[in-house]
Amino acid sequence: MNTCCTSPIETIAADKHKVNDECCLVAEKTEAPVTAKCPVSGTLSRKVQRRTVEHLIKSERRDVIENVQYYYCAEPTCEVVYFSGENVPYFTKNNVSVKVFAKEPGDDVNACYCFDWTRKRIQEELVNTGKSTASLQIAREIKAGTCACDVKNPKGECCLGDVNSAVKEIISKKSQ
Ligand SMILES: [Zn+2]
Protein backbone atom coordinates (compact mmCIF):
# COMPACT_ATOMS: atom_id res chain seq x y z
CA MET A 1 0.00 0.00 0.00
CA ASN A 2 1.19 3.52 -0.80
CA THR A 3 1.62 5.38 2.49
CA CYS A 4 3.52 8.39 1.18
CA CYS A 5 2.28 10.61 4.01
CA THR A 6 4.37 8.64 6.54
CA SER A 7 7.63 9.60 4.74
CA PRO A 8 10.19 11.73 6.66
CA ILE A 9 9.08 15.33 7.17
CA GLU A 10 11.85 16.72 4.92
CA THR A 11 10.83 14.36 2.11
CA ILE A 12 7.20 15.42 2.40
CA ALA A 13 8.12 19.12 2.61
CA ALA A 14 10.11 18.81 -0.63
CA ASP A 15 7.04 17.21 -2.25
CA LYS A 16 9.07 14.06 -2.96
CA HIS A 17 6.89 11.70 -0.92
CA LYS A 18 4.45 10.61 -3.59
CA VAL A 19 4.71 7.14 -5.07
CA ASN A 20 4.31 7.07 -8.88
CA ASP A 21 3.13 10.67 -8.62
CA GLU A 22 0.21 9.57 -6.46
CA CYS A 23 -0.65 10.57 -2.92
CA CYS A 24 -1.94 7.88 -0.56
CA LEU A 25 -5.02 10.04 0.04
CA VAL A 26 -5.93 9.48 -3.60
CA ALA A 27 -6.93 5.85 -3.34
CA GLU A 28 -10.17 5.83 -5.32
CA LYS A 29 -9.98 3.22 -8.05
CA THR A 30 -12.18 3.53 -11.12
CA GLU A 31 -12.15 1.98 -14.58
CA ALA A 32 -12.18 5.35 -16.33
CA PRO A 33 -9.11 6.49 -18.32
CA VAL A 34 -6.35 8.03 -16.18
CA THR A 35 -6.43 11.29 -18.14
CA ALA A 36 -8.91 13.15 -20.34
CA LYS A 37 -8.84 16.38 -22.35
CA CYS A 38 -10.68 19.43 -21.03
CA PRO A 39 -13.58 20.19 -23.44
CA VAL A 40 -12.73 23.91 -23.41
CA SER A 41 -8.93 24.21 -23.25
CA GLY A 42 -7.99 20.74 -24.47
CA THR A 43 -5.65 20.40 -21.48
CA LEU A 44 -4.74 16.85 -20.59
CA SER A 45 -6.23 16.47 -17.13
CA ARG A 46 -5.99 13.97 -14.31
CA LYS A 47 -8.80 12.13 -12.61
CA VAL A 48 -10.21 13.67 -9.47
CA GLN A 49 -11.89 11.69 -6.75
CA ARG A 50 -15.64 11.90 -6.37
CA ARG A 51 -15.38 13.06 -2.76
CA THR A 52 -13.37 16.11 -3.88
CA VAL A 53 -16.04 17.19 -6.37
CA GLU A 54 -18.86 16.56 -3.91
CA HIS A 55 -17.13 18.54 -1.19
CA LEU A 56 -16.17 21.57 -3.28
CA ILE A 57 -19.06 22.18 -5.68
CA LYS A 58 -21.32 24.88 -4.26
CA SER A 59 -24.45 23.45 -2.66
CA GLU A 60 -26.81 24.97 -5.23
CA ARG A 61 -25.00 23.07 -8.01
CA ARG A 62 -24.41 19.84 -6.11
CA ASP A 63 -27.43 18.05 -7.61
CA VAL A 64 -25.87 18.53 -11.07
CA ILE A 65 -23.05 16.13 -10.14
CA GLU A 66 -23.55 12.99 -12.21
CA ASN A 67 -22.46 9.47 -11.50
CA VAL A 68 -19.42 9.74 -13.82
CA GLN A 69 -15.65 10.10 -13.55
CA TYR A 70 -14.62 13.73 -13.19
CA TYR A 71 -11.28 15.23 -14.17
CA TYR A 72 -9.54 18.37 -12.89
CA CYS A 73 -8.39 20.94 -15.47
CA ALA A 74 -5.25 22.71 -14.18
CA GLU A 75 -4.94 25.15 -17.11
CA PRO A 76 -4.50 28.63 -15.53
CA THR A 77 -6.51 30.47 -18.20
CA CYS A 78 -9.37 27.95 -18.44
CA GLU A 79 -12.63 28.53 -16.56
CA VAL A 80 -13.33 24.82 -16.30
CA VAL A 81 -12.41 23.13 -13.02
CA TYR A 82 -14.14 19.74 -13.23
CA PHE A 83 -15.37 17.97 -16.33
CA SER A 84 -16.17 14.47 -17.42
CA GLY A 85 -15.40 12.57 -20.59
CA GLU A 86 -19.10 11.68 -20.61
CA ASN A 87 -21.65 14.06 -22.03
CA VAL A 88 -22.60 15.86 -18.79
CA PRO A 89 -22.25 19.51 -17.71
CA TYR A 90 -18.82 20.66 -16.57
CA PHE A 91 -18.15 22.87 -13.55
CA THR A 92 -16.39 26.23 -13.78
CA LYS A 93 -14.55 28.35 -11.22
CA ASN A 94 -17.87 29.97 -10.29
CA ASN A 95 -19.32 26.61 -9.28
CA VAL A 96 -16.50 25.85 -6.85
CA SER A 97 -16.66 27.12 -3.27
CA VAL A 98 -12.95 28.02 -3.02
CA LYS A 99 -10.59 29.98 -5.26
CA VAL A 100 -8.51 27.60 -7.36
CA PHE A 101 -4.79 28.26 -6.85
CA ALA A 102 -3.83 27.29 -10.40
CA LYS A 103 -6.40 29.66 -11.90
CA GLU A 104 -6.42 32.69 -9.57
CA PRO A 105 -3.34 34.90 -9.21
CA GLY A 106 -4.58 36.92 -6.18
CA ASP A 107 -2.74 37.20 -2.85
CA ASP A 108 -5.80 35.99 -0.95
CA VAL A 109 -5.78 32.63 -2.76
CA ASN A 110 -4.78 29.54 -0.83
CA ALA A 111 -1.87 27.39 -1.90
CA CYS A 112 -2.59 25.11 1.08
CA TYR A 113 -6.30 24.75 1.83
CA CYS A 114 -5.96 22.57 4.94
CA PHE A 115 -3.83 24.91 7.03
CA ASP A 116 -4.74 28.20 5.36
CA TRP A 117 -1.49 29.19 3.68
CA THR A 118 -2.44 31.91 1.21
CA ARG A 119 0.08 33.60 -1.09
CA LYS A 120 -0.17 36.58 1.25
CA ARG A 121 0.67 34.55 4.37
CA ILE A 122 3.62 32.88 2.63
CA GLN A 123 4.84 36.29 1.46
CA GLU A 124 4.45 37.90 4.90
CA GLU A 125 6.52 35.21 6.55
CA LEU A 126 9.21 35.60 3.88
CA VAL A 127 9.28 39.36 4.31
CA ASN A 128 9.30 39.21 8.12
CA THR A 129 11.74 36.36 8.69
CA GLY A 130 13.59 35.96 5.39
CA LYS A 131 12.57 32.32 5.10
CA SER A 132 9.53 30.15 4.59
CA THR A 133 8.52 27.46 7.06
CA ALA A 134 5.21 26.74 5.29
CA SER A 135 6.19 23.47 3.65
CA LEU A 136 7.82 22.09 6.82
CA GLN A 137 4.82 23.06 8.94
CA ILE A 138 2.46 21.49 6.43
CA ALA A 139 4.63 18.36 6.22
CA ARG A 140 4.42 17.99 10.01
CA GLU A 141 0.62 18.14 9.84
CA ILE A 142 0.53 15.67 6.95
CA LYS A 143 2.66 13.25 8.94
CA ALA A 144 0.36 13.72 11.93
CA GLY A 145 -2.55 12.74 9.67
CA THR A 146 -4.44 16.03 9.99
CA CYS A 147 -4.33 16.99 6.31
CA ALA A 148 -7.54 16.75 4.24
CA CYS A 149 -6.28 17.86 0.84
CA ASP A 150 -8.31 15.08 -0.80
CA VAL A 151 -11.46 17.12 -0.09
CA LYS A 152 -10.25 20.66 0.67
CA ASN A 153 -7.82 21.24 -2.21
CA PRO A 154 -9.68 21.60 -5.53
CA LYS A 155 -7.08 19.47 -7.28
CA GLY A 156 -7.90 16.78 -4.72
CA GLU A 157 -4.33 16.09 -3.71
CA CYS A 158 -1.33 17.39 -1.83
CA CYS A 159 -0.63 21.13 -1.97
CA LEU A 160 3.13 21.01 -1.41
CA GLY A 161 4.10 21.37 -5.07
CA ASP A 162 2.01 24.57 -5.19
CA VAL A 163 3.32 25.84 -1.84
CA ASN A 164 6.92 25.34 -2.94
CA SER A 165 6.31 27.01 -6.28
CA ALA A 166 4.57 29.95 -4.55
CA VAL A 167 7.61 30.37 -2.29
CA LYS A 168 9.98 30.30 -5.29
CA GLU A 169 7.83 32.77 -7.20
CA ILE A 170 7.73 35.24 -4.31
CA ILE A 171 11.50 34.98 -3.77
CA SER A 172 12.21 35.54 -7.47
CA LYS A 173 9.88 38.58 -7.53
CA LYS A 174 11.63 40.05 -4.47
CA SER A 175 15.06 39.73 -6.04
CA GLN A 176 14.05 41.52 -9.24
ZN1 LIG B 1 -9.75 23.49 -19.18
Structure notes:
It is a single chain. The protein is of the alpha+beta class and 176 residues long. The chain has 2 domains: 1-17 and 99-176, no CATH class; 32-97, Single Sheet (N-terminal domain of TfIIb). It is 30% helix and 13% strand. The protein contains 6 helices and 7 strands, in the order αββαβββββαααα. It has helices at 9-13, 50-56, 119-129, 134-143, 149-152, 160-174; strands at residues 35-37, 44-48, 70-72, 80-84, 91-92, 110-112, 117-118. The strands form 2 sheets. A 5-stranded antiparallel beta sheet has the order 1-2-3-4-5. It has a two-stranded antiparallel sheet with strand order 6-7. A hairpin with a 6-residue loop joins strand 4 (80-84) and strand 5. The longest helix has 15 residues, at 160-174. It is globular. It starts with 8 loop residues before the first helix and ends with a helix. The mean pLDDT is 93. The structure holds zinc ion. Zinc ion is lined by residues 38, 40-41, 43, 73, 75, 78, 80. Zinc ion (ZN) binds at residues 38, 40-41, 43, 73, 75, 78, 80.
